[in-house]
């Protein structure tokens, strides 16, 4: 993969993606335990949909007052319910948040020491052009039904909402086809750890 000209750092950047609830965060944390440096796009993004979002005015102007709670504050769940049922609204939200997430990510990446193995956990790795920043990409393969059930339980949302979120992304098959590597999360945690250990050794080998 050709590295983007936006990058001036010396890190080896691994983009990790997969289906919602598919275990990409768990895989990234295991790889972090093995020696990588993990950065989560979701964790960076969260502050932009917090009640005290630095872009609250832009969000309200673009998405409307229906994203506010009873006290007039930004409500992340209301944003999610709105955008995952409306492709145009989702596009607007992404246009407001993604450039800021990328800018912040590149700043963090630039502060790291040379030759670091960096794990960038990105739900929309291929849906945006985030993959162009990466040296290699990885897709976590999971059982779609199990992934949806995990999302419902984890986020406290309905099955319909979970399905809407999944449909707003590329299919798991499409992501796997685009990725340089795939690891399976279809067994228990120990099975996933073995997959990650093999992948980590492979990635370290590519850094030499």
Automatic annotation (TrEMBL):
<feature type="binding site">
    <location>
        <begin position="21"/>
        <end position="26"/>
    </location>
    <ligand>
        <name>ATP</name>
    </ligand>
</feature>
<comment type="similarity">
    <text>Belongs to the CoaE family.</text>
</comment>
<keyword id="KW-0808">Transferase</keyword>
<dbReference type="Pfam" id="PF01121">
    <property type="entry name" value="CoaE"/>
</dbReference>
<comment type="pathway">
    <text>Cofactor biosynthesis; coenzyme A biosynthesis; CoA from (R)-pantothenate: step 5/5.</text>
</comment>
<dbReference type="GO" id="GO:0004140">
    <property type="term" value="F:dephospho-CoA kinase activity"/>
</dbReference>
<dbReference type="InterPro" id="IPR001977">
    <property type="entry name" value="Depp_CoAkinase"/>
</dbReference>
<keyword id="KW-0173">Coenzyme A biosynthesis</keyword>
<dbReference type="InterPro" id="IPR027417">
    <property type="entry name" value="P-loop_NTPase"/>
</dbReference>
<protein>
    <recommendedName>
        <fullName>Dephospho-CoA kinase</fullName>
        <ecNumber>2.7.1.24</ecNumber>
    </recommendedName>
</protein>
<dbReference type="GO" id="GO:0015937">
    <property type="term" value="P:coenzyme A biosynthetic process"/>
</dbReference>
<keyword id="KW-0963">Cytoplasm</keyword>
<dbReference type="GO" id="GO:0005737">
    <property type="term" value="C:cytoplasm"/>
</dbReference>
<dbReference type="GO" id="GO:0005524">
    <property type="term" value="F:ATP binding"/>
</dbReference>
<keyword id="KW-0067">ATP-binding</keyword>
<keyword id="KW-0547">Nucleotide-binding</keyword>
<keyword id="KW-0418">Kinase</keyword>
<comment type="function">
    <text>Catalyzes the phosphorylation of the 3'-hydroxyl group of dephosphocoenzyme A to form coenzyme A.</text>
</comment>
């Amino acid at each position: 993969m050709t590295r983007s000209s936006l990058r001036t750092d010396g890190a080896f950047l691994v983009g990790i993606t997969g289906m919602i609830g598919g275990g990409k965060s768990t895989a990234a944390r295991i790889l972090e335990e093995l020696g990588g440096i993990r950065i989560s796009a979701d964790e960076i993004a969260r502050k932009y949909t917090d009640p005290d979002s630095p872009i609250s005015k832009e969000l309200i102007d673009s998405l409307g007052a229906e994203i506010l709670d009873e006290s007039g504050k930004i409500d992340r769940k209301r944003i999610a319910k709105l955008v995952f049922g409306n492709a145009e609204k989702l596009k607007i939200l992404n246009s407001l948040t993604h450039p800021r997430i990328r800018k912040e990510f590149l700043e963090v990446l630039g502060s790291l020491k040379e030759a670091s193995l960096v794990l960038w956990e990105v739900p929309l790795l291929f849906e945006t052009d985030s993959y162009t920043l990466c040296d290699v990409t990885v897709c976590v393969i999971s059982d779609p039904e199990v992934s949806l059930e995990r999302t419902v339980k984890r986020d406290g949302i309905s099955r319909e909402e979970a399905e809407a979120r999944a449909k707003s992304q590329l299919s798991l098959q499409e992501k796997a086809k685009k990725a340089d590597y795939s690891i399976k999360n279809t067994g228990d945690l120990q099975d996933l750890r073995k997959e990650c250990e093999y992948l980590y050794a492979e990635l370290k080998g590519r850094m030499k």
